């Protein structure tokens, strides 16, 4: 209040102080603007901070309602996390039609498990853990040693950059298919750890938490998976250009 | 954290692949529809699970019935079972009577616990006694087997089993090894990967496709796989009566040997007499004498045939001694064999750590030369599948040098050359292919090695 009053004082005596106060006040909007810009920027590129904010909105009442199996509460929670879980499943298993089935299975499992949810982790982490388990079971099935078909994935699975030439898009599509074929050759746990950490940027401790494993085991899985995938990619005619070739000593 | 530029990515060799994966957008999935469907399915499942609760009296009866059944089972189990007494159990029941059995994932099952079906099991104690349906199976440490409830069969991977089967018209029991299957109807016998020894009753030997290899192997007789194969290769000698099933199917003449002819004769005779008694005959002396004479004649014929077979078998064994030394060395009593089998299994499942640890265990169990070569080759395979090509080729070359005289050495040399060729080390690959061609001029991979060498030398 005093500061605001001083701004209207005549420019006599402490002129310098008044000017500096005005300058400081003048900077405030730009500071706010920068903070807002950062929030908008992160919210637009990475959904994770936004989701963290959203998860905070799930109150104890909603969770209790979910535990009681109230359809409306469950639907609200699932809707909130569906995009995040879908992205996780797509990255792990590839862009096949099976993602829908896995997402549905995740929700079914979550609904059955909600009465046992103790809120020790956030709902987002808990649901992600269920999705990871669902994906792991899926990848372990012997009939799932399959090729990821981009045709099966539908037209929306085309690489997102529409400015690309059709030839480039076709090449990208082939590369993506080969990448998932290489991932198909990895053991399920190694593959999930690799995708979550190296491709999706989750920290080791988070990956370990999602997979219910120790950090040491997770690091080991990632290490072996990295080696195996890198070796496969280097030998692969389609993917070789995307990885630096080994420099012989 | 921003997933498109993960700060925790240890090195950026994956940036290209990461960018590629991130270029894949999420599908246009109707989340609301999936959620609705999931909620409906989950509700239906819960309703189905709750349905019996509506008729609680039914549950009461059910629980009472189960309790009574449990009591009966408990009483049956607590009854003393003498070692020689026939085993009676449910056709699907499989449990451990004594000792310990380890599952592949490391879980150890002990006395009284149920044995899972269709799972590889390793006997972890000095000996384990298993109740499998209507049979009692004893197996020493290191035996690897799996129980198949459907068809009441034991799949024997390594080691040996001593089986006592409760006789009964509908109670078949099988033991399957890598080469053959033993089909029994009430008997006692011992099986390992290479042979069957019958101590009581009789068994039929089939190959894995169900063709009869030996229609009947009786008490006191021993049947050997190697001899059966040798006889099959040499052509079938005259087969009087008895093996009609084998003769009709044009299969190999049984390679049986009379393990203890005197004991076998005595037992056969006493069996004939006891059979006459149990038939309720008036035990007329003439009939008994006829039976006895016929039985003796049969035994003499059997002994003659057994002697012929022994002679052929001895010759075959001598000729194949080298091959046997390489192919099945001390397999019968080898402690390394189960570990090698486990390593192969883990490798197939891409559990490299476990495969490697099984290989190390095998090497500590005083393996034969052939087993050592196999263990080293498996270690190289673990390295190769883990992307450690340098280590893999180094181990393979070690095997190739140390076991030049064995098939494993030849395989290892060719595999090392191929590996280096695939890894782009054409110079060393060429040297190794040349070494292979010189060392094994009539080797199994001679043509392939020549072709690959030629391809490497072509600019």
Summarize the entry for a quick read.
Chain A is mainly alpha-helical. Chain A has helices at residues 2-7, 15-45, 47-57, 60-67, 71-93, 98-113, 123-140, 150-153, 166-184, 188-199, 204-211, 215-235. By secondary structure, chain B is α+β, with helices and mostly antiparallel strands.
How does this structure look, described?
- The complex is a heterodimer of chains A (249) and B (459).
- By secondary structure, chain A is an all-alpha fold.
- Chain A is 71% helix and 0% strand.
- With 459 residues, chain B is an alpha+beta fold.
- Chain B has a nine-stranded mixed sheet. An eight-stranded antiparallel sheet of chain B has the order 1-5-6-9-12-13-16-17.
- Chain B contains 15 helices and 17 strands.
- The interface between A and B is large, with 62 and 48 residues.
Structural features:
heterodimer; A: 249 residues; mainly alpha; 12 helices; 71% helix; 0% strand; globular; disordered N terminus; B: 459 residues; alpha+beta; nine-stranded mixed sheet; eight-stranded antiparallel sheet; 15 helices; 17 strands; flat
Describe how the helices and strands are arranged:
The complex is a heterodimer of chains A (249) and B (459).
Chain A: H1 2-7, H2 15-45, H3 47-57, H4 60-67, H5 71-93, H6 98-113, H7 123-140, H8 150-153, H9 166-184, H10 188-199, H11 204-211, H12 215-235
Chain B: H1 15-22, H2 31-50, H3 56-78, E1 94-98, E2 101-103, E3 108-109, E4 121-123, E5 127-132, E6 135-140, E7 144-148, E8 153-158, E9 160-165, E10 173-176, E11 180-184, E12 188-192, E13 195-200, E14 202-207, E15 212-218, E16 221-224, H4 225-234, H5 244-248, E17 256-258, H6 261-278, H7 285-319, H8 321-327, H9 336-348, H10 352-364, H11 369-385, H12 389-402, H13 407-422, H14 426-439, H15 446-457
Parallel strand pairs in B: 8-10
Antiparallel strand pairs in B: 1-5, 2-3, 2-4, 4-7, 5-6, 6-9, 7-8, 9-12, 10-11, 11-14, 12-13, 13-16, 14-15, 16-17
Helix pairs in contact in B: 4-7, 6-7, 7-8, 9-10, 9-11, 10-11, 11-12, 11-13, 12-13, 13-14, 14-15
